[in-house]
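chain below, 179 aa
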Amino acid sequence: MGERLLRWFGECHGLRWVALRYFNAAGADPEGELGEVHEPETHLVPLVIGAALGSRPPVRIFGTDYPTPDGTAIRDYIHVVDLAQAHVRALEYLWEGGASDVFNLGTGTGHSVRQVIGTVERVGGREVPFVEAPRCSGDPPELVADPAKAGRVLSWQARWDLEGIVKTAWRWHSRPGLD
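prediction:
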């Protein structure tokens, strides 16, 4: 609906715009100065890290019977730094006269819930407690971005992989006094 409103407003008032469709934003400032802390927490990466650190309950894996290699849902995780850089490129694109458009922002690579848990265990050196739960109604087995258009038009691509995302988030969430 937001994209339709932008299109209509743009047509009526001559506004050029860009809509950026985020996939699963995650990670933290590489320097460790900014990160994500909010309640309720619904994002997988901080939930898994919190479970590993003992500051949150065991992670609930919603669905282990998806038609995926390990039975858990697959999602595309994108680092917040990559998202910030995409915003800069989108503004430059508009400044250079680019037409209104919509872009998917992701890595183009999916990771399962179990892969995220495994990455947190490797990075943090701690086991992640989890419990299995039924699927959430309507959840698709896989959601992965196709960022090719953002690459072609904005000259943008994600640079951070899942391990880098987890490393920066781990550094942020394991800081003394964060709880």
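The mean pLDDT is 96. Residues 18-173 form a domain with the UDP-galactose 4-epimerase; domain 1 fold (CATH 3.90.25.10).
thats it, cya
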